[in-house]
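Regression report. Comparing outputs from two consecutive submissions.

Submission 1:
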Amino acid sequence: MMNMNKYLDVNPEVAAAIAEGKPVVALESTIISHGMPYPQNVETALAVEQIIRDNGAVPATIAIIGGRLKAGLTPEEIEYFGKKGQEIHKASRRDLAVICARGEDGATTVTTTMIIAHMAGIKVFATGGIGGVHRGAETTMDISADLEELGQTPVMVVCAGAKSILDLGLTLEYLETKGVPVIGFGTDELPAFYTRQSGFGVDYKIDTVEELAAAFKAHNDLGMKSGILVANPIPEEYAMPFDVINNAINQAIAESVEKGIKGKETTPFLLARVSELTGGDSLASNIQLVFNNARVAAKTAAVYATL
């Protein structure tokens, strides 16, 4: 499959690893452009890449630069992305064709990172949290394209659950409809990003990376077309109290409704507001949970490569 797409550039180190069957872990670029300010965004992105290397895999940060789909960025490209920040489009599936045709830059979400990773032949992807069904979606139909992508692209996504700004019950129902296994890594409860609890159960609890890799191998051998979602709770020492984060989220949601914020502006507004309301604690937690997901993804990819 690799390199068949004329819009795709696979970084030479990543291409060599894929060709040799070595473990590779994809990383998204929205966290660099929209997730945190410069230079913290660049430092975090480079630190995540290093964690993946330290755990036996090759990192492939994914982005769109000048209309080219990039599987694996150089440190210079990461720096460019971090400096340009919010000016870069957040690119979902619906945006890819126009961005490529216009030769523009795009920050990849969970959706587009999965698409480009799959195109390049990368099977495992580490991110922060996934999108989901928004609160009030029964009237707004605001459902993240991430869920649709998980239903049709066979990539393992390691995340800290879904952000609790979402309707977690409906998010799980949607994933079940799409046939996506939701696996709790060492937990039987869906973590809610900043907090380890949500009150909602997962489909399966798996305690080791060996069993995770074996389940994903069976999933692919069976020819399943969907992805697998691994919900890896934020480490205990960085977790935020459930009530603190929920009160901040409820306040941020109320403010977004008052201000008439809609569509793709919603999530960045809510996350920035929650960070302000929690005195920046949520940003520190965000970085730690991404590091933790990178570790689990790299270790799982390393085992998968031996199967």
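Submission 2:
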Amino acid sequence: MLTIKQILDDKEAVIRGLEKKHFEGAREAIEGVLEIDNRRKTAQAAVDGLNAQMKTLAKSIGALMKQGKKDEAEGIKREVEGLKEQAKAQEEAMKAAEEERRQLLLAIPNVPYDLVPEGRCAEDNVVVKTGGHDTELPENALPHWELAKKYNLIDFDLGVKISGAGFPVYIGQGARLQRALINFFLDEARAAGYTEIMPPTVVNAASGYGTGQLPDKEGQMYHCEVDDLYLIPTAEVPVTNIYRDVIIDEKDLPIKNCAYTQCFRREAGSYGKNVRGLNRLHEFSKIEIVRIDTPEHSDQSHQEMLAHVESLLQKLELPYRILRLCGGDMSFTAAICYDFEVYSEAQKRWLEVSSVSNFDTYQANRLQCRYRSAEDKKIRIAHTLNGSALALPRIVAALLEDFQTPEGIRIPKALQPYMGCDMIK
């Protein structure tokens, strides 16, 4: 959430940033926040003035009583009671303005960094790096949904029977491949210094507001209405919320957590050929990495996270590219974001497998995630960062498609100890 100070320090820069994200009505929203804040300030000034009056009058009551001027003292008491009522009304006006301001700020996205390119959609993202090798597939190569059927790895129809479209059932070596990837990604994260967390996969509304899924993506989340709980779209939500309303000593930063969870997304409105098979699911497995850091060090943390995700794709021997997202394609909460994509030779298209974002103070301000400076002991707002490391469905799709051979599906060397074989036959 943006802060009033951030807006007052450079209102025009904030508006330009929101316009880079193609946030409609950016100027009107910011002017609205400031107008409400002025109402809050006016009410606060009135409360302060009334309190000062009451304090002065209260002092005079005692003096009048000592002088035997009881009637005059009683008159002033009545005047004080009237001022109390006025102060109460102004306090209510102030609180109402604060809540109105908060609700409006919750609906305003984060301001992107200057490094974020201009652009409206995915076609405007900037490719900053490519890696891996060119894939040579056998003649008549199959897409992963056909390979999954051929080798009895994933049953999409059975998932429809049990739950509905977008809930596949993994079978035999398909299930083992899932587990192999989960353990490989977790082991790599632990080796990189991340502490593993096993969080709940349902969260309360406060957690959704804390990381910015609410109110922005309410329609994309599965909502358990009776208990007012939400199925998580990513482990970012419960893991980051561990630090909601927490003050961390600077010496303990950066905090580095990782978590494997199932993730749930309604994906309302998704249709067409690009949602076939594993391309877009309602439930999927993902390993998430989360960092809490100081503003001075968060850029370095971001670069380390990007290097970690890149190393995973290199060890899986997959062709990949890294994109810096343009303003119009970034999430509501991110200040800067890089996407990782792997190439599916069978589908002839790039598949997104990770987004690695720095949220600056945006999430931390909503969460009240703060740290105590080692230098001056002052309390400051932290920075939060997160990334997929990695999401499994499209990784599985790319592995099946890019490593298919006439003899079977080859297993990358890094995964062989986890799979217990070098080929799916």
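Expected: both submissions complete independently.
Actual: both completed, but the second showed a warning that disappeared on reload.
Relevant detail on submission 2: DSSP finds 13 helices and 19 strands in the chain.
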